[in-house]
Structure formats: C-alpha cells, structure tokens
Backbone:
C-alpha cells in the first residue's frame, strides 16, 4: 500500500512538473515616428513544442517573431489559443488599437 501511494504521488508530481507555464510578453508605444516610438519584448527561448493557452492585454491582435522572422500574425486575442510554437527564441509585439498610444500583450504557453 505504501508503495502504491508513493507511486501515485510521484506520478502527480511528475505531471505537475511537466506542465510548466512560460510567459511571453511585449509592448508597443506609439510615440512620434522616428523619434520615440518603441516596440519591446523580452526574448523567450523554449526547448520543446509549446501551445498558446491564453492571451491577455490591451491590443488589437499581435505578431510573433521567431529567429528574426514573423511567423504568426493575429488580429484578435481568441484565435491564437491552441497555436503551437516549436523550439526556438520568440518575441511578441502587440498591435495598437485605433486612437491608442500604447498596447501590451501577454501569452501563456504550456
């Protein structure tokens, strides 16, 4: 009985450990073109294929860049859920909403 409980505990721990969530986020500030407009995203390197599980932020869609190439462009925050990202280094940048000076987006990957 002790061995069975230990085994079940180990399986539960291993499942939780493998379900790690990674966050990818970015911002855009309109500023004045050519002067202080800016795009920011902290690069995230993933070593296994991961799926977008949620999207949040104040934006009108976003684009994802992998290894300096735009690989996905989305115009809303619902359609991307379920999209798979293969191993690599990623950046994400939000689209500004109409009449907005700034935007942000955060993706959860699992």
Residues:
């Amino acid at each position: 009985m002790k061995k069975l409980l230990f085994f079940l505990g180990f399986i539960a721990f291993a499942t939780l450990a493998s379900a790690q969530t990674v966050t990818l986020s970015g911002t855009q500030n309109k500023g004045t073109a050519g002067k202080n407009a800016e795009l920011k995203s902290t690069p995230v390197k993933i070593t296994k294929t991961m799926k977008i599980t949620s999207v949040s932020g104040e934006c009108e869609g976003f684009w994802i860049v992998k290894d300096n190439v735009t690989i996905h462009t989305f115009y809303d925050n619902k359609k991307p859920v379920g999209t798979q990202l293969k191993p690599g280094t990623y950046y994400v940048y939000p689209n500004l909403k109409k009449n907005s000076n700034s935007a942000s987006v955060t993706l959860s990957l699992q």
